[in-house]
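Q: Predict the assembly, please.
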Amino acid sequence: MDKHISTPSPFFNTMIEIHLYGLLRKYATQKSPLKESVLYLETGGDESIQSIVNRLEIPPEELGPTLFLNGEYSGIDRRVKDGDRIGLFPPNMILAYRQYFKKVEE
Amino acid sequence: MTDHKTKVEKVPTKYVEMGGRWLTSNIIKDEVDPTCHPLGPNNKLVFAPGIVTGTTAPSSGRLSVGGKSPLTGGIKEANAGTPFSQMLAKLDVKAMIFEGKPADDKFWVVKLDKDGVSFESADDYLGKGLYEAYPLAFDKYGKKVGIAGIGVSGEMLMTNAGVCFNDIDNRPSRYAGRGGLGAVMGSKGIKFIVLDDKGTQPVKIKDRDLFNAGRKKLTDGITSNDFTKKGGMLNSLGTAALVNVINEAGGLPTYNFREGRFKGAAAISGEAIAEAVKERGGAGMTGHPCHPGCLIQCSNVYPKPDGTEHVSCIEYESTWAFGANCGIDDLDDIAEMVWQCNDYGLDTIEGGGAIAVAMEGGLASFGDGKKAIALMKEIKKGTPLGRALGCGAETIGKILGVHRIPGVKGQNMPAYEPRAIKGIGITYATSPMGADHTSGYTIAPEIAGVTGKLDPLDPDKRNVSKAFQDLTAFVDASGYCLFVTFATMENSEAFQGLVDTCNAVLGTSWTDEEVVKIGGKIIETERAFNFEAGFTEKDDRLPEFMKYEKLPPHNHVFDVPDEELDKVHG
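A: Predicted assembly structure:
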């Protein structure tokens, strides 16, 4: 995964950070579940979470329905901008109490 | 327990259809003076298996314990999954009710089998940790009995003492933990209740065909849902899988509810527990069932570095309570404190809450696991400090002059931050139990009639909260584990199976809507008790600091207006 910068860069607020959990940790350099597995990416202009996922080459079956953008339970078509934090979970890690969470789609 | 008289009563007509929480709360409402002292002779302690408990219905081995809570001063129902529940059902006992109070300070073992009740001295077990006392009792009464008990915290009548039950391997590890019912048991001089179901018949089912069909529907729902299926989230990673999810949502209470994200979250998560089990091997395991017949099997056995057993089970709430809430990111320290809770007879949520508030009050630094373990030891010793800690977060907070006490009705909040997840804040505020996450669980929204916006940061959540509190109350009556509701939330057939199995056991013909109404009536009964005990709408509030301290990372306060809270239960 050399194409990704995997450590905090001094320019990181012009980047987005992607927190990976469970089986998705393999896409980060730091793969141990005992620590954060984070990738830093530059956004390519007007981008959605889906296009970030595509750039990371995460196959659809490895990504679950539980996605967060800046701590908001989100749909995959939401737009991202520099400084955002994305959280991606595999299919076997799910949000409990979903009745209390509105999924932000756009 | 005043004079060891026992009486077997036929179930009164009004109680025939009731089980679990429905029954315990009704008996307490009917028989206990709401103004009585919870530790005095006029309180009662009730044990009731759920409606389908003891049958082959999946994940249905739960029982409820009820009484007036010495922690909240209101009505309390706490429940646990344990083989004990199934034995009580097979003994054909609808409810065990303990009354009175011995004149002396002796403790007793109460033994129940198909031939009746007997009392024996509990002197051999007093003052010992439960990890020592349970094996002694199983040696004496046989490996196949079920045991409910209290630890030293219950003997000393601390208001965070829970009622302990054995798990499938006879560990003292399954707790009806919340609300101090272990102290009520202690006040009545009961150390252990031993059940022997030898020679009993299976639980009677009125409509076997309906039962089998319902059982299949619910089983199919559980075994196909991503939460509850074999290898699904709960089975592979345990409830603690939620640590990373709720942390990412900014709703994991950290440093005694000062922040919503913990930098050490990964290290205390279900993934980290599973990794320790894998790396250390030995006695460690995930997918451990709390009672026979559970399809979900969400518990674990956490190993020490050398592979020997440290503790079962590290739940989401427990790893949070002693982890993020105390700023501790060392799972071995957390495991030790969960072990201490099991050994001393304490609820882990309130236990961790007390340590976090003690840290707030200067008794230790946030993150200092070794000091936290030392503070816990004071509880076992029964020192004045230990007794204060053993009475929970509000008591130790008052003593130390702490204003940031994250409780409702004197009961510490669990691991979901109400400023980040406002709907759960409404449930914390308005549950008759005090701050309780299990009061508003998940059942299919369309069944609950829930529509409209479900934004976690949107204060207009009261209808959701009401619907889920009602449905949860019914599930607590049924004997099913609340986690089956993850499956029934998205699968109305599975929910039908849940209702049908209850109908089949009882010979009733409840509809979906009727069981929701039953749940609502249970809450009404509980609120009526609390009202007569002196509670007002002013008790249905979150602590003041949550109205003015903004919680990072969302930087929200709890802004649900009081009048909205007052409308929840109408």
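Chain A has a mean pLDDT of 87. Chain A touches chain B at residues 19, 21-22, 32-36, 64, 66, 68, 70-73, 87, 89, 91-102 (CB under 8 Å).
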